[in-house]
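Give me the 3D structure for Regulatory protein, luxR family.
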Amino acid sequence: MKVAQTFEKHLQQVCFLPEEIDQQGVSQLLDKFEQLGNTMLNTAPLYFLIDYTKSQYLLMTNSTLEITNRDPREFLEGGIPMLKSIYQPDDFRIYNEKIFPVNLRFLQSQPQAIHHEFIFSYNFRIKHKNGNMVPILQRGCYLTSPVTGQPIYSLGMVTDISPLKKDRIIYQTIERRTENGRQLLEENYYYPYEEDSQLSSQELRVLGYMAEGLSSKQIAWKLNIAENTVNNHRKNMLKKTNTKNVAELIAVACRARII
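Predicted structure for Regulatory protein, luxR family (259 residues):
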């Protein structure tokens, strides 16, 4: 089977797959996510289970009332189309075209037998019944077909992060459960609105000096700002360009003729 490039295309493909997942394995994984949620203070996680082959929710807990003021039965009856109807459109575009394809490519690079060991996280906004957009964090894993490696089920938990999330940046991570906790394997930043990803004039000045080989202390002296401010500009530029280090940042900036 040809691998889908977006979430929506994936749903179109897997609807033809037979169900090949051990239901006992699903229950065990849900128990693990519930234990994780119980360790989070002052939160009431929502637990979910999605069957991609039917575009339906098989489980949606009552916490959806607290997060969206919607009865969980609305999701159980409406399925993924119901979720999409309240998903912030720009955030869904990022998930559909960027986040889900990254997850698929990662799964392709790993043996199917250990797919369930990876935790995929990202934040997005959904519409509350009062019209407000609520920022939430979703953490979950995929159960995949032993034959094709394609995700068939998605399960995990969702938490309201309104007290913590004030910007519009989408943060994605891929982790693996280990005996000592969790290992971060990949992280990415996405900007639904292009203006948020543009480098500011001050960031461009800092970047120019970085390209000349100046240290943070030297740049701070030239711009008459604190060294910590220079370091914060560097971190923000790495996020905006999805680069991992200064060398990669300068290379991307040169290719884009920013500097």
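Residues 37-42 have pLDDT under 50 and may be disordered. Let me know if you want a second pass.
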